[in-house]
Amino acid sequence: MSSRFAVFGLGNVLLHDDAFGPQVISELRSQWLIPDDVVVEDLGTPGLELSTHLAGHRRVILVDAVAADGSPGTLVSYDKETIVRHPTGIRLGPHDPSLGETLLTMDLVDDGPREVVLFGAIPASTEPGIGLSDEVRSAATQVADDIVQWLRDQGIAIAPRESPVPRIAWWETPTEFEAFRVAGNQLPDSH
Amino acid sequence: MSRVVVDPVTRIEGHLRIDVQVDGGQVSKAWAASTMWRGIERILVGRDPRDAWVFTQRFCGVCTTVHAMASVRAVEDALNLEIPLNAQHIRNMIIIAHALHDHIVHFYHLSALDWVDVTQVPNADPGKASAIAESLSPWEGNSKLEMKRVQDRINNFIAGGQLGPFAQGYWGHPAMKLPPEVNLLAVSHYLQALEFQRYPNQVVAMLGGKTPHIQNVAVGGVSTAVNPDSMGALNIDRLFQIKTLLDKVVRFIQEVYFNDVCAVAAFYPEWFGYGAGVKNFLSVPDLPTDTTNTKFDFPGGTIRNADFGTYKPITGPKDEYFRKGVTEDSTHAYYKGSGGLHPWKGETEPEYTEWKDDGKYSWVKAPRFEGAPMEVGPLANVLCGFAAGDPLVKKWATRALETVGAIAKKKVGPEVLFSTLGRHAARAIRAAVLSELALKHWQSLVDNITKGDLAIYNPPTFPKGEVEGVGFHEAPRGTLSHWVVIDNGKIKNYQAVVPTTWNASPRDDKGVAGPYETALLRNPIADQERPLEVLRTIHSFDPCMACACHVFDPNGNQTAKVKVV
Question: What parts of chain B have a pLDDT lower than 50?
């Protein structure tokens, strides 16, 4: 909570390219030594619960699949002003407070992050199923580098791992991942 | 006669569509539909049953822990595995903390604005608002100073020409009836709730390792090491940190949320007369207090035709009444087949057609219990607890009815619960009951650990051949059941019958409509372009169709559009 910077991956790993955010998080962890004062986490698909994670951080990077016009794998980015500019609609299912709405709600009580950058990629498919498209997979590698650059621009020292650890996207591991099952059911996502 | 359609417009974000036929200013016919094919369960076929919970809790980011719980329970049931007491209490505390978070967020941030008009806040007298609040509870956030501070903040927002997160409301709608002071009071607590919803969430994170998507359950127990004296385990220090967080949220539930629901309800007495629905209710017992799932702190069962006398308990996951009672029918759903199939035999072969009022119109199947549509959720849970004579449910239900009666200055009985507002009241009653049980299970865990029992896990062994299991859980939105068939240690079939499937059910083979569809009948519609009344009734069920895709849409398309045809 006291950390100044956070990078959060958003998305549903069971819906193909919607796993873009979580994929980028596993990419960052496998290739880079993340300093202790930077929080890097796969948040899956939070609703308003996102506010719990945003609170207390001054600058936040969000990584998510983006429904924009363009070819699959195209990288896009948005700042906070753009995210909150568009009014939200009448919600039928009350469980999809939009990102913009969450940020506006937090501003109402003055504990939202000052700066938010959303790094996104346009998905090829968000149908149920596991595994990224080739375009979005290479976009994830690319955007991880962009995020590292962004953090360095903010004065964060971040070094590559001398020997990168395996890139673990647990949801893509077919079955029988016995190696990761230590002390109960600790999965690689838990660190 | 005209037709109002509330339909999500974005490609992936909303998945619920409601059609109502309006005749003489009220709903004469209704259809509830899901516009997205799910079938996520198919991802599980062929996997290791011990890993299923990790995937199922990714179905949805709002209902995350609930799919983890139901999944491990289903596999444990198939193996007849005993669960150590510590693991039961840790799971129960996660279940309760998650539910408290969820109920607070549902009322304040997802549905209160159906009843509370933010644009009336500038007209309120902060002194009067404070006096109303202080007559209901000793909460320190009810002072005149606090009310004035919130009013100034909202005034600034409105003066700045933008309503921020409130921009989507039906402000000034003729069905908005709260006095300005009650609007101010509710908005003040809306802001406070942003803080207080985090505390139970922190409890989930402390016990579960992470939220959303906890890390600490396992088929056979939990992976949370417990040891009063060990730094690396759930020790006494951490348990007391959890207690501090629980104490804060318990007070907020009992002194703020509970009273706000009663106050809002008292000003909309007509809404105790709308939205009754199918009047059949299903809930399952939860919060087990033994290692074999035969004793529970929250009872469950069925009630038919709004008659408490018909209450029949469900005694536990081994009860054949539940195991045999559930079927899913796809006569009006976009799947092959029609008649009711038991979940272990469930099929999910899509067969898409155009929308047909009298044919297939939804991606949701129609779950039935012994052939009847059932409402699930806090209302079902509370009604069953009431019928079972549960002392905590009786205590808080009685207090709710008395508080509403005192504000409305008339006597109200339990019959008002069968309504749109009754669902909100029941959710507040359930939250109050759970707030007491949170502290009870915390104490039980501490007592058990200090007695020297540190067991957390019994390893599963899978037999050769085929076994079947059901895991049920009384989740914040109601009865959730996962049904698994395991063949030689691998998943052969997996079906999740989720609460919103029960409530958003389409018609069945006999043409009998589901809970949403029935609850909307005879709801008044004052303004067809702004069908606030439809939202009130649907939101009262707390739908969660998401299961959930989270794509950000930079064009900011409205999540739902309203069309009058």
Answer: 8-14, 547-551, 553-559
Q: Which domain holds residue B399?
A: 37-56+65-74+278-417+460-512
Instruction: Count how many domains chain B has.
Output: 3
Residue B553 maps to a domain: yes
Residue of B550, B557, B564 to mutate, interface with A, max A Cβ within 10 Å: B550
What residue numbers bound the domain in which A108 lies?
5-190
Max distance between CA atoms of chain B, in angstroms, equals 71
Same domain (yes/no): B347, B366: yes
ipTM of the complex: 0.83
Q: What is the pLDDT of residues B342-395, one digit of tens each?
A: 888 877 778 888 888 999 988 888 999 999 999 999 999 999 999 999 999 999
Residues 187-226 of B with CB under 8 A from A: 191, 194-195, 197-198, 201-202, 209-213, 215-219, 221-223, 225
Query: Can you state the angle between helices B420-450 and B378-387, rounded to 10 degrees?
Result: 70
Residues of chain B found within 8 Å of residue A107, distances taken between Cβ atoms: 164
The tokens for B20 are: 């109502």
Does B439 fall in a domain? no
b/e per residue B208-246 (b: at least 16 CB within 10 A):
bbbbbbbbbbbbbbbbbbbeeeeeeebbeeebeebbebb
**Beta-carbon contacts below 8 Å between A and B:** 244
From B107, which residue of chain A is nearest by alpha-carbon distance? A94
* Chain B residues with beta carbon closer than 8 angstroms to that of A89: 9, 168, 557-561
Q: Strand ranges (DSSP E) for B331-396? A: 366-369
Q: Is B459 on the interface with A (CB under 8 A)?
A: no
